[in-house]
Design a protein that fits this description.
By secondary structure, this protein is an alpha+beta fold. Helix content is 37%, strand content 37%.
Length: 155
């Protein structure tokens, strides 16, 4: 009887462990959102204003790490293209999480890096993109880029 109980416990433990090891299924919407972010990075790298513009809502805005606000799609695109032209290096955004606020609004958070700048420096930041579904298409409606700060001292 003890042997059967021990075997049952082992089998239950194996079942629980293997259930936890299965990767979560990524929804079609999350895949689409990650693709929009990848297209944004690609359009910035190619300095392609038309491709960049197509990814944003008309009322989109962006707060860049320098503190500049770009409000509206036109200002966002022209500012992004100017920034891409003036800074050397390669941009990457690694989306680490996507959270759905509603069925038509999502927040994508990720690491944003600009590597290969003059002097070989890498600029490491965080970015948050808010995306909104327009019809069947996901578009970026807000971007917040942040430079990590040193922790505040505790007294």
């Amino acid at each position: 009887m003890r042997i059967l109980l021990a075997m049952s416990c082992c089998l239950a433990l194996v079942a629980v462990c293997s259930a936890q090891a299965k990767p979560e299924k990524i929804s079609k919407d999350e895949i689409a959102i990650r693709e929009v972010v990848a297209k944004y990075v690609d359009a910035r790298e190619r300095i392609d204003p038309k491709a960049t513009e197509a990814l944003f809502t008309a009322d989109a805005d962006q707060l860049v790490s320098s503190g500049e606000w770009r409000k509206g799609r036109e200002a966002l695109v022209s500012g992004s293209m100017a920034s891409s032209r003036s800074s050397s290096g390669t941009r990457t955004i690694k989306v680490e999480s996507v959270r759905f606020v509603s069925k038509d609004v999502a927040i994508a958070d990720g690491r944003y890096e600009l590597t290969g700048q003059a002097g070989g420096a890498t600029r490491s930041m965080w970015t948050t993109l808010v995306l909104k579904r327009e019809g069947k298409t996901w578009r970026i409606t807000a971007i917040r880029n942040m430079l990590p700060a040193a922790p505040a001292s505790t007294r």
